[in-house]
């Protein structure tokens, strides 16, 4: 079975790249097609991979600022013919599912999200702070991109969704069914600690849509200790609204994250996310999670057992949960058991079984007259 991996862009590290790393470990000989690749930004280990950037990679400045090139991605991906492969596995949040596979190839799309700035443009503009001028310029373009994106989705053989939220969006926007396979989490890295300290914790990229501002303001108004790990363009704004009880840690190295999580009073996950790996990591470390009650947190955080949901994206709603939060109500064994439902080994087993099953069905259908 000749397989190709497809990934939107390789100029930043996040959840999509965590998934890609696992896919590469499962299919180490598969080439990786991507619209752009910035090797100086990405982990050094990626340089050993067979990465094949499209012609878009040569456009000026695209590696550091890929968003302004939004209109060209459909042309780049739509012109890529991968019909010479048996199986195409796309790891998609943008437009990479638009590759040409033809009738001879099975295309399985691991859908991180239907393209956000196409199907949720107004929310995207608001959370990125792009302003009215950007909205006026983008709306006509996005109408055309919606038609392209929808047509591309109809060429996919099978969709896999990362959460019930994404499954619902695939059905709503693409009118397609999907199977849920949760993203892989390295739960073995995290273990409960006998020592719990009096601090809430956030670890995230500091960008507007993550809504770290809710946690910072809630902690400042309640006068409780909050540690914020991560970097990003929202740092100055968050620091300006923080009180004396909020401490910014900057980038948290991977080897320090498990202990930091295991000792926190609770982990705070304040944004609306498609899935969210950090709440699972916190539960693997035996700690409860306070999460906004929407998106992926509905799959990963069980109220009353592994944490709590707050139900409005407001400081007051989050404060209402944090104010009387008692971590002793939650059993670390239950939290760890819940986290293990999302372990990498389960992802690998379910994904490979799904691909094998789909490939067998695809071959049988092709043989049927």
Could you please describe the fold and organization of this structure?
By secondary structure, the chain is α/β, with parallel strands linked by helices. The protein has two domains: 3-184 and 344-367, 3-Layer(aba) Sandwich (Rossmann fold), CATH 3.40.50; 187-342, Rossmann fold (3-Layer(aba) Sandwich), CATH 3.40.50. The protein is built from 14 helices and 13 strands. It has helices at residues 15-26, 73-78, 116-119, 121-128, 131-155, 164-174, 212-222, 235-241, 257-262, 278-284, 297-300, 315-322, 332-339, 344-367, and strands at residues 3-7, 32-34, 51-53, 87-92, 106-111, 158-161, 178-180, 200-203, 226-229, 246-250, 266-269, 289-292, 307-310. α6 (164-174) links the parallel β6 (158-161) and β7. The model has no long low-confidence stretch (mean pLDDT 93).
Overall geometric form: globular
N-to-C order of helices and strands: EHEEHEEHHHEHEEHEHEHEHEHEHHH
Helix content: 25-40%
Main sheet summary: 7 strands, parallel
Q: What gap, in angstroms, lies between the N and C termini?
A: 22 Å
Hey, roughly how much beta strand do the residues contain? 5-15%
Give the overall pLDDT as a whole number. Answer: 93
Number of helices in the DSSP assignment? 14
| Total DSSP E strands | 13
SSE-based structural type: alpha/beta
Question: Which CATH class of the largest domain is shown?
Answer: Alpha Beta
Oligomer: single chain
Our Rg estimate from Cα atoms comes to 21 Å
Spatial strand sequence of the major β-sheet: 3-2-1-4-5-6-7
Low-confidence stretches: none
CATH topology of the largest domain: Rossmann fold
Can you tell me the number of structural domains? 2
| Second-tier CATH architecture of the largest domain | 3-Layer(aba) Sandwich
């Amino acid at each position: 079975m000749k397989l190709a991996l497809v990934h939107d862009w390789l100029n930043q590290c996040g959840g999509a790249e965590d998934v890609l790393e696992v896919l590469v470990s499962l299919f180490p000989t598969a080439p990786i097609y991507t619209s752009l690749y910035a090797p100086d930004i990405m982990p050094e280990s990626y340089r050993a991979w067979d990465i094949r950037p499209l012609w878009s990679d040569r456009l000026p400045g695209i590696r550091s600022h890929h968003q302004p090139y939004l209109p060209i991605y459909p042309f780049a991906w739509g012109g890529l013919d991968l019909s010479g492969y048996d199986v195409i596995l796309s790891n998609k949040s943008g437009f990479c599912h638009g590759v040409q596979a033809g009738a001879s190839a099975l295309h399985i799309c691991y859908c991180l999200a239907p393209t956000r700035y196409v199907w949720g443009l107004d929310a995207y503009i608001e959370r990125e702070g792009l302003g009215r001028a950007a909205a006026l310029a983008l709306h006509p373009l996005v109408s055309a991109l919606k038609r392209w994106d929808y047509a591309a989705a109809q060429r996919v053989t099978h969709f896999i969704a990362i959460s019930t939220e994404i499954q619902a969006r695939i059905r709503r926007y693409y009118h397609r069914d999907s199977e849920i396979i949760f993203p892989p989490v390295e739960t073995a890295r995290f273990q409960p600690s006998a020592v719990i300290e009096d601090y809430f914790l956030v670890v995230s990229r500091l960008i507007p849509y993550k809504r770290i501002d809710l946690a910072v303001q809630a902690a400042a108004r309640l006068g409780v200790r909050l540690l914020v790990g991560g970097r990003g363009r929202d740092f100055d704004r968050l620091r300006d609204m923080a009180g004396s009880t909020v401490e910014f840690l900057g980038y948290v190295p991977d080897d320090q994250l498990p202990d930091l999580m295991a000792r926190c009073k609770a982990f705070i996950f304040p944004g609306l996310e498609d899935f969210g790996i950090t709440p699972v990591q916190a539960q693997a470390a035996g700690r409860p999670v306070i999460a906004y009650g929407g998106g992926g947190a509905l799959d990963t955080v069980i109220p009353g057992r592994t944490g709590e949901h707050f139900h409005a994206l407001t400081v007051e709603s989050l404060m209402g949960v944090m104010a009387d939060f008692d971590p002793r109500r939650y059993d670390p064994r239950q939290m760890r058991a819940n986290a293990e439902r999302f372990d990498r080994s389960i992802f690998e087993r379910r994904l490979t079984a799904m691909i094998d099953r789909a490939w067998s069905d695809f071959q049988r259908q092709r043989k049927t007259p």
